[in-house]
Amino acid sequence: MELLLFGLITGFVSGFFGIGGGTILVPMLILSGFIIKEAIAISIMQMVFSSIYGSFLNAKKAKNIFKDGFILGVGGFVGGLQNSFVHSLVSNEFLQYLFIIIIVLSIIKIFISPAQSSQEVKNHSKASLFIIGFIVGIIAMSIGVGGAIMLIPLLVGVAKYPLKTATSLSLFFVIFSSIAGFISLSLAGQMLFYEGFIVGLASLVGVYFGIKIKNTTPITSYKQSILFLNFLILITMIYDTFFKVS
């Protein structure tokens, strides 16, 4: 029952914010008793479900952005395949510290960037998009998130995408990085298939309502919601990393 609830919440967050859901699912799973590497495995499998279904729903309103999304996604896929290798090199504690640093940087970048860019979206080379995707894919899959928490600030602040367009594009990116992470952890024998399936199935319901509400939310309120989510995740991870008694 707990996993079903986690799936519903994560799916809604994934659809509304355009993220894989790992940024909220991993802390919830850790607080419920899973170690971070188990939480990462469940999170990655859930992301496969939510990102595919969410991108299908988003495609109706964002048909023109998925060319760039495909290049970013291929880079993320290749980067995500390095997941099990990275896990063999670093500790659980290192991954948690890295997670906190990334959230802080994302909050700063989103806060200083306008929600609705007045500039035209730049044309970027395939090589630069691939490299961005590759780097994000490596880091994201190593900490159990789809990459959107890093990719959205880059798309808004550097590539000048409108915020809602960036979130749709980032969720599409998550398809590639999460499938790569799923393959990598499965081959390494580190995937929790049953728990991941339960959470992933429940997330589909949440994704539907998340995207539905996102499309009717004013852009200023939407930006404030994204910042609030990041602050909430940051506080949760700081508590778990530095203050929680084992």
UniProtKB/TrEMBL annotation:
Pfam families xrefs: TauE
Transmembrane segment boundaries: 28-53, 65-82, 94-115, 127-156, 168-185, 192-211, 226-243
Keyword annotations from UniProtKB, A to Z: Cell membrane, Membrane, Transmembrane, Transmembrane helix
Record's bilayer topology term: Multi-pass membrane protein
GO CC list: plasma membrane
InterPro entries: TM_pro_TauE-like (IPR002781), TSUP/Inactive_protease-like (IPR051598)
Chief location category: membrane
Compartments, record wording: Cell membrane; Membrane
Entry's family note: Belongs to the 4-toluene sulfonate uptake permease (TSUP) (TC 2.A.102) family.
PANTHER family referenced in this protein's UniProt entry, alphabetically: MEMBRANE TRANSPORTER PROTEIN MJ0441-RELATED, MEMBRANE TRANSPORTER PROTEIN YJNA-RELATED
Protein name: Probable membrane transporter protein
Species of provenance: Arcobacter arenosus
